[in-house]
Design a protein that fits this description.
By secondary structure, the protein is mainly α. The protein has one domain: LemA-like domain (de novo design (two linked rop proteins)). Helices cover about 80% and strands about 0% of the residues. The protein contains 7 helices and no strands. The longest helix has about 60 residues.
């Protein structure tokens, strides 16, 4: 009778361990998929921005004969948005954001350009896309935080190591955006 009780306890313990392993593994998969989905949402907006930029540049080219370097940088960073790792795309996104800011600042020197309806529309669409990227970047980073916590915290870190789950990179803001804004009157 005691043998059956011991076998039953061992079986119940083995079943509990197996259930824990399955539930933890599935949870890690779910978190990893959320990170990948969040990145896919960022990628969609980066592609949208990628598609808007040539239209914006064509509108601007006729007015800005002297701003060749800015336009060349936009072209270079735009190309980097669709290739490379998360880190490389994030860096290209940050560089492109800075270059577009300078483009819009320079455009203020061209009143006819600012009055152009196509330019205004493209500028608004691009600003909307920038806002979406910012919002989705936050969601992505939240997903990465949950995932990284799960693969680093005990006891799920044991299973994460066994099954090869790796930490994900955050989509960080460039240093320029981290600096405090100076307001002058």
């Amino acid at each position: 009778m005691t043998e059956l009780l011991v076998i039953g306890c061992i079986g119940a313990l083995a079943l509990a361990v197996l259930a824990y392993v399955v539930m933890t593994y599935n949870h890690l998969i779910q978190l990893r998929n959320r990170v990948e989905n969040a990145w896919a949402q960022i990628d969609v907006q980066l592609k949208r921005r990628y598609d808007l930029i040539p239209n914006l540049m064509e509108t601007v080219k006729g007015y800005m004969k002297h701003e060749k370097e800015t336009l060349e940088n936009i072209t270079k960073y735009r190309a980097q948005l669709v290739t490379g790792s998360v880190e490389e795309k994030a860096q290209a996104n940050n560089m492109l954001s800075q270059t577009l800011k300078s483009l819009f600042a320079v455009s203020e020197n061209y009143p006819k350009l600012l009055a152009n309806e196509n330019f205004k529309m493209l500028q608004e669409e691009l600003a909307g896309t920038e806002n979406k990227i910012s919002y989705i970047r936050t969601a992505y980073n939240d997903s990465v935080l949950s995932y990284d916590n799960a693969i680093e915290m005990f006891p799920s870190n044991i299973l994460a190591n066994i099954f090869g789950f790796k930490s994900k990179a955050y989509f960080e803001a460039p240093e320029e955006e981290k600096k405090p804004v100076k307001v002058k009157f």
